[in-house]
Amino acid sequence: MLCYAWNRVEEVENMNLKGMKGDNLYDLLSLVLCNSVSKIIKRGIYKEYIPKNEETYSLRGKINFGESLKKNSFRNGRAYCEFDKFSDDIIHNQIIKATLYNILKCNTVDKNIKDKAMKLYHYFEHISTIKLNRTYFEKAKIHRNNRHYKFSIDICKLIYNDMIVDEVSGNISFNYKEEEKLAYLFEEFVRNFYKIHLSNSHVCRENIKWDAAGDDMDFLPRMQTDITIKRDDEIIIMDTKYYKKTLVSNMGQDKYHSTNMYQMFSYLKNAEIKGELYENSTGILLYPQVDKSLDNSYELQGHTLKICTVDLNDDWQNIHNRLLEIV
Q1: Contact status, residue 110 vs residue 22, Cβ threshold 8 Å
Q2: Which residues touch 24 (CB under 8 Å, ≥6 apart)?
Q3: CA angle 185, 188, 191 (to 5 degrees)
Q4: Which residues contact 106 (CB under 8 A, 6 or more apart)?
Q5: Which of 75, 52, 76 is nearest to 64 (CA)?
Q6: What is the pTM of this model?
Q7: Cα separations (Å) of 136 from 86, 195, 277?
């Protein structure tokens, strides 16, 4: 899901999660980060030219006369010089080092994963230690020469966003909003999967206007699809949902989430004003499979509504085939 959500599909085949015993999102993220950083180390830790202003016996670059006179460097046969140094002590590596350190300080991360993190941490011992904040991630620019760092930096940011630091003990814990976070990742995963694997289709998010007239139209909530799939002969409007329970119990009987159905029906009917294929568009509600597989179809006022599940615990090839089968 992470690889597709972040457009790093090439990582899928290389992602080794064997031996993964953790039971939470942050164990998974920590292990994935370790795998990603291992590849960086094998490839070679990235370096950049960084400006330095150091006191030295040998002249390098440009002499900083003001600093040299202020510190009486000339009397000791030295001078402060300004020069560019090719170094790996850059913000990208500092972020990785700080994140590995936070993983080691977290009480809830699996011990085996911490052991992996510790081995990697030694490679960054000479890198400056920083206390992470959002500004550092903004400074860590990704370009052609360091694009192999993007996946690792993205995971570091995802981990940082949910960190809770105990100011007294310094211990790290995480704010467990897994369902909310995974709902977003599931949506991004499915949309990018279809962008990559559906040929002759245009996959996007789409705004739908209300087929309505009246005062204060701005008060109406915005309708935006999670996924719209446009083909020459059909339109599919899909909404992804991520719940711990696919169905809800009502009077002892399992039912669909009514709000999801109302939402999708509203999308389908209001989109009819776009004309052509939208008048008979198909709606799909897609859920991760929890305890029951769903593949149901209904005809609603000229539209087909499908309610489907995909088993994310299945083998990847089966997930791949299932997502294609649904559409």
Answers
A1: yes
A2: 108, 176, 178
A3: 145
A4: 26, 171, 172, 173, 174
A5: 52
A6: 0.68
A7: 20, 31, 47
